[in-house]
Amino acid sequence: MVGREFEKKELEYYLSTNKAEFLVVYGRRRVGKTYLVKEFFHDSFSFYTTGVANTNKSGQLAVFNRSLIEYGSSKKKVPSDWFEAFERLKELLINSETLSETGRKVVFLDEVPWMDSPRSDFKTALDFFWNTWASRQNDLLLIVCGSATSWIIDNIIKDSGGFYNRITGRLHIKPFTLSECEKLLQSNGVDFTRNQIVRAYMVFGGIPYYLNYLRPRSSLTQNLDNLFFSENAPLRNEFKELFSSLFRKSDDYVRIIRKLSEKKIGMTRKELLEELKMTNSGNFSKYLDELEQCGFLRKYFNNRNKKREAIYQLIDPLTIFCLTFIENKTCDSWQKYANTQAYDVWCGFAFERVCLLHTRQIKEALKIAGIISHEYAWRSKDPTNKAQIDMVIDRDDDVINLCEIKFSKDEYVISGAYAKKLLNRKELFIQETGTRKAVYLTMITSFGLKRNEHSEIIANSLDEEALFL
Fold it and tell me: What is the pTM of this model?
């Protein structure tokens, strides 16, 4: 298994205790949650089942029943409700001889948000199962998992009812970093350079499922044409499938995503409401929270003053790629598009997002990993001034790094005009924020910064190698 060192140590811990454990594993769709759990336990579960998308209560119970029979239940009739289903599971576990290497009974319930179909008693029955019996079984490890991150957080982790203070552990499975992507591709025989891996990340992000589609001995361009633009492209409809599987009524979520894709730096809640002409309600807040929890958006503030209105920014690379090129039908061949000026513009925006997703690595490369900081994008409050800064690292040691991010095919050259623009932007930032901290101009580029008479204004320069730390 590539990567996931921290996650494997966490699973080892919960497997080694001598008390009942209720572990919640969550993360966005396709990130590798099920693969991680199954590989770690080598499929040696006392019981395993999964929810099924777009299936009603009776269908979910039928699937659960088949799993009960597979693991040794002598009763064949489909349970009439979830209470009966979990009672059958209890009987199965009491008589089960399938143990892990440590002698614990491991129960893995995958895609539980799908099990909780409309007008279902699933959540209440799971609550009853855990609180009345399972929580007292010192040899039991119960793992629940789901891609609908918002459901997991709202209904289990943050539940104020039966699950309140009952969860013993949570494990958030996040996308791979560039370094982990490199290891995955190498293990698959895909021999890309680091620059090619960065460009693959611009499209797929760190989602292992998508990266596993990349074929050895084919260029990135060939792979993208095959996956998105060929006649039977397997990922052509991924955007629609992704949102319909995560949100039962996905139309409003997609409207928000589409609107945010038009504004690179993001939009405030008020701006979104005005542009979309949607009602200012609790439902709208719920949409934004769930999109953030699922990893599609990030929320930030222009500076440390949290009383300012939050800005929501679309951050998921694959979503942006699909919206830009598939849904909007702006491209039918990546090979043709990659030779246009529009491609260079897209690369610039996409590289910025890759950097935003690797702030830990950037801080490490700047040798400030141990310093507490707050990261955000900044834009001038003057509506007539379009000045903005891609990434601001506001540090607790009285220093601010203003990071300018540039994708290039060679060393980046700062011209006299661009140097003047950077200095003016720095002064405007200091003026508008009123900061008393030292402000350093920092460049993050694909292949580094070419030294000349104008590059001296840059305090720190990083290339894409820093993103692989």
Answer: 0.92
